[in-house]
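$ fold --in a.seq
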Amino acid sequence: MTFPKSTWRLLKSEAAPGPWNMAVDEAVLEAVSGQKSLPTLRFYSWEPVCLSLGYAQALDEVDQEALMQNGWDIVRRPTGGRAILHTDELTYAVVGPQDDHHLTGGVLASYRRLSKALMAALLNLGLTVEALPQPQSPGMNNTMKDPVCFEVPSNYEITTNGKKLVGSAQARKRDGVLQHGTLPLFGDLTRITQVLSFPNEHLRQIASDRLLQRETTIESFLHRVLCWDEDAESLITAFKDTLHIKLELTELTSQEIQNAEKLEKEKYAHHSWTVSI
């Protein structure tokens, strides 16, 4: 499918704490929904390491003492899904109005369109990837109760050699769409199990082993560490070519910054939001 040419905004944000990253995503969503900003493609990373919870995920799935001992942050996302440990990765966000032709047709239809750009970027980097419907196995329901987001690929998640590579989630609010997701570049994927609650260490080890069977990084496939900028440039090219869009590199507006500061203070960095479920 060839889409009509359109202009989007490109944001390349500096590494920031989790509450600020989520506040910016929501501030951009509000601006785009109110037609105060162009549809936006944003890339960012996390400093310090941060555990993010899905919107409806229970806080008691987190070992908060272990989280504190590691010096890692925690934030609750505005999107669904399970826990993700944000480190050694590139995070992307696509924000646009619901009537944008790339985002119409509901969550799955829009995700499949955007996934074409994600897959093209990874193919350009030399990976072999696919996004196929994932069958419901007999043990799927029990596995989905696990707190780790990457454990099982959901429908049309991007995989390589059968292992989940890109995790994405979407929220629709105020006539706008936010889809953000992570591309793990390198590192030990089992670190997340250090800060999640398990009845005993044996079950923690089982969860770690299962993660390595079902999740992967770009480094594991390419056998080299891919830097953040190289990954970002591949994504930029793929979004331009695959979705037929023009990207204009710019910055957050003063209104978006002001709104993000308010959202960070009153929502994402506030204890009541983190424990809201």
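$ fold --in b.seq
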Amino acid sequence: MAREPGLSVRVKLAASYAAFLMLAGAVLLVAGYLSLSRGFHPGVRFTVYSHGALVRSFAPTAALVMGFLLAFGLLGGWILAGRMLAPLSRISEATRRVARGSLSHRIDMEGANDEFRELADSFDAMVERLEAHVMEQQRFAANASHELRTPLAITQTLLDVARQDPDTDTNDLVHRLQLVNARAISLTEALLVLSRADQRSVTREPVDLSLAVDQAVET
């Protein structure tokens, strides 16, 4: 069963908030008790005849205050932590969707330009680059398959014709197959060079495309 994103962190934040409130409340209660035990309270002076009676009178109020602080701290901390971790939940959900293959998903987080917004924007930029790279690889694979299919189809046609015609000139067939094979090898090497183009491992230079067009038309 999948765990709610940030649940353990939310529990820890709520507990920390409650512990902080209880600590602050305990300090105030201790200060109040010491003030009462000395017979002094701001604006009031009185005499304490029995510390036991003071403790019995003070303890229920202190326990009630501490219980209220505990409940308020846990509830308020849970709500506050939920609001704080809501952007993190969106980022976690987007990460899971991208891991399942949905590279088109974006967080598009709105609101203040804080750490969560910066993390979400960085995640969107990373996924966008990853999607562009995957699409580029897919286009390259499709183009390579299309280009390599042509010499293979020509080779298959030459062999089919030779098998159906017993009077085929063997030397001419071999010569044509050599030409097709050399063209396929050249094409494969060109595709390998093209696959490394994004790594900047090739030297760029001007190319006269008119020669390539004339050769293609002649072929």
